[in-house]
Amino acid sequence: MTKVVILAEKPSQAKAYAEAFTILEKTKTYIQLKPDDTFPNGATITWGVGHLVELNEPHDYKPEWKKWKLDQLPIVPERFHEKVSKGKWEQFRAVKKLFLQADVLVNAADVDREGSNIFYSILRLTGVKGKPIRRLWINSLERDEVRKGFKNLQNNERDLRLFDEAKARQISDWMVGINASRLFTLLLQKKGFPSYLSIGRVQSPTVYLIYQRHKQIENFKSEPFYQIEGSFQSEAGIYQGLAEIKEKDKTKVQALLDEYGLKEEVDLIGIVQNTDKKTKHQKSPKLHSLSTLQSVANRRWKYTPSQVLKTLQKLYEKRLVTYPRTDCNFITEHEFAYLVDNLNSYQEVLNISFKPASLKPNKRYVNSGKVQEHYAVIPTKSVPSQKKLTGLSYEERNIYHEVLATTLAMFHTDCVYEETTIFTNVHDLSFKTTGKRELKSGWKELFPKPSKSKQEKEANLPYVQNGEQVGARLHIKESMTQPPKPYTEGQLINMMKTCGKLMDDEEDVEILKEVEGLGTEATRSSIIETIKTQKYIEVRRNNVSITDKGIMLCEAIKGTLLSSPSMTAKWESYLKKIGSGEGSKQVFIKQTSQFIETLIQETPDSIQKVNVRSTGEKSKWNDPIAKCPSCPTGSIMDRYKFYGCSAYKEGCKVTFPKKLAGKTLTKNMIKTLCEMKRTKVLKGFKGKKTFSTALTLDEDYKIKFDFAKNA
Q1: Where's the Topo IA-type catalytic domain (predicted)?
Q2: Which of 42, 218, 421, 638 lies 20 to 30 angstroms, CA to CA, from 538?
């Protein structure tokens, strides 16, 4: 009897898989499936919990690597090892037990290189070897797609290459982060820097690109420029036009008026020389990848990229949309076929009805050759009932409607508009006026109407005829050149994706174009969240600005590969070779080690030029928080992943978690607990439901809930 054990990436994914079959038993750590035609002897689904396994920290290799010292760099272990993530031992033991009992293992984690990394990292730590491994590769959690995927499991040859690719990236990112963060922090602390810097291969060049925009804005000098504007009164209405001159020198503009015998603010006669009308067709937008959806949602509702990904993930787990972390804007004919079948039902969801322009696939949207691992984000076959739609959150409804409308738009007619250009002569000086008038909404009727200000910019022009005389008044219009605007969070996603356009090296530009810039579709939003958390950037009213700490980081890394997207270009180029079997993980890690050696040699000189700034942080990250409540000599310190007593070497074992029941415990909360033994009632703890409670410190210096104080 063959025992099949399936590993999902997380519990929600496991639940979705299980619901495609008949469940025999559910426990805290696995789900047992009844036998059927897919699994004649049944199967067991278990799961990771986020990252069940992580790379060891420096002090796990050598205790002396715990302290940050320049003379210990570079920190490069001979072999890299993994450990079970803190608080996840129970699930790991359950997975290990099931793996040991299995005859066949199925990797059913997310279908990307990180999904491969999660499965094989867990497998390696369990010590289980020599068992057949199969790979589930699907783009939807719908019942039919899940069953079809498990009936057509793939071999793991490609998966193993992706694991090597992911592990090479993970180890090299660890090496750069650990060594560069310590190197730059310690050198700057010698100059009086009171905090610490976190440096990473992707996050640092991202901050640097924001810094470059900051410098462009800061160094911009607004200058006046002058044009001649005419206001024209026709029988059908008023319109404005500009002469074809734009000068910094006002006297040149005045000279042009004099040349044609014209004066400002006097009544003149103009003649409509020519009107040119063109009918234009605007095709519907391409289908959504994650990044295009993040950009649209940020522009329309000010949602952060992270918020969009989380919302899309929820919709995916509710079987309403396809795989969210996709960088593709195309679908195959298979998906197109089910979209056609459900066309009427989808229209009912949007409460709209239109006759499709065509039911044949169009290469603008349907192109199997452009689809690799994942296709575009589209609605699944599961059409939500009104009750299910009502049960969605406001954000979920907005995102689902955007995905659905963009998908339906490819079946709709083009938006048709008329573009009008009027040339008006005043004493033979020509003035140009342009306007736009929508003739047929077409696909645009599926989306919210644009703001009034945008409609006004595209306002209809009055109907005028060639040769018509119009009243004219002219004036010299003074305007000021405008600096570039700060990035919004949505634009930041696009900037990370297209940063190759900002580079000089053509080869790097091409690589970055191929790998789509900094980060991946799945990681860009978390990178933005990371640099926000590190206080390198601030976001106010959706505008991204760099902080003093971010400026100092950029001054420190200026001129190194850490400031340039070309490092990612070179990395991603070679990583792709590892994934295709043409490159070596060992070679890649060795090259990263050489890069770190160079950085250690060159940075001490370059860091002398950095101006140490006040970052607004009140103290060093590892300054004492409070006196230890247990021992007479120790202080409670930030130990990175927890809070602990500084006298641990003398035997004090007092530690406090950084998270308790889903809530982050701040330094102030820990200080209050140490000094007062009790906090006020705090909100935001998570159990089966969200709850509020005070915290107390018991006799063993353990944190306890105190619900009595809620009363």
Answers
A1: 159-600
A2: 638
Please check whether residue 10 is in contact with residue 119, taking contact to mean a CB–CB distance below 8 angstroms: no
The whole-angstrom separation of Cα 360 and Cα 340 is 9
Judge whether residue 614 has pLDDT over 70.
no
What pLDDT band is residue 417 in, cutting at 50, 70 and 90?
very high
Provide the number of structural domains found in the chain.
Answer: 5
Question: What pLDDT, on the 0 to 100 scale, is given for residue 711?
Answer: 46
Report pLDDT digits (tens) over 126-148. 999 999 999 999 888 889 999 99
Token pair of 357 as six digits: 């322009």
642-645 and 635-638 strand pairing: antiparallel
Same domain flag for 474 and 511: no
Q: Burial level of 380, CB count in 10 A (0-12/13-18/19+)? A: buried
Residue of 283, 282, 444, 287 lying closest to 367 (CA atoms): 287
Cα 80 to Cα 60: distance, rounded to the nearest angstrom = 11
278 burial type by CB count under 10 A (0-12 exposed, 13-18 middle, 19+ buried): exposed
> Residue 588, SS3?
helix
List the CATH number of the domain containing 320.
1.10.290.10
Query: Do 381 and 505 fall into the same domain?
Result: no
What confidence category does residue 503 fall into, taking pLDDT thresholds of 50, 70 and 90? very low
Q: How far apart are alpha carbons 206 and 237 in whole angstroms?
A: 50
Number of helices (H), then strands (E), belonging to the chain: the values are 22, 26
CA distance 123 to 100: 10
For CA atoms 539, 684, 679, 671, the dihedral sign is negative
The reply to whether 31 falls in a domain is yes
Select from 111, 532, 491 the least CA-distant residue to 294. 491
Q: Are both 504 and 601 inside the same structural domain?
A: yes
Residue (of 179, 178, 62) closest to 600 by Cα position:
179
In Å, the largest CA–CA distance within the chain is: 100
Quick count: other Cβ atoms within 10 Å of Cβ 634? 21
Domain range holding 229? Answer: 224-283+415-480
The letter for the amino acid at 550 is G
Contact criterion met (CB below 8 Å) for 205 and 530: no
Q: Token pair 């200000």 is at which residue? A: 453
Q: Are strands 659-660 and 655-657 parallel, antiparallel or unpaired?
A: unpaired
Residue 465, classified by CB atoms within 10 Å of its CB into exposed (0-12), middle (13-18) or buried (19+), is exposed
Residue-level pLDDT at 510: 54
Q: Contact at 8 Å (CB) between 252 and 227?
A: no
Pairwise pLDDT comparison (568 vs 584), residue with the higher score = 584
* 147, 175: one domain: no
Give percent helix, percent strand, percent coil of the chain, each to the nearest 5. 40, 20, 35
Same domain, 429 and 451: yes
DSSP string, 310-350: HHHHHHHHTTSB--SS-----B-HHHHHHHHHTHHHHHHHT
- Count Cβ atoms below 10 Å from residue 79 Cβ, excluding itself: 5
Tell me how far apart the alpha carbons of residues 431 and 467 are, in angstroms, rounded to a whole number: 14
Give 541's contacts (C-beta < 8 A, 6+ positions apart). Answer: none
- CATH assignment at residue 437: 2.70.20.10
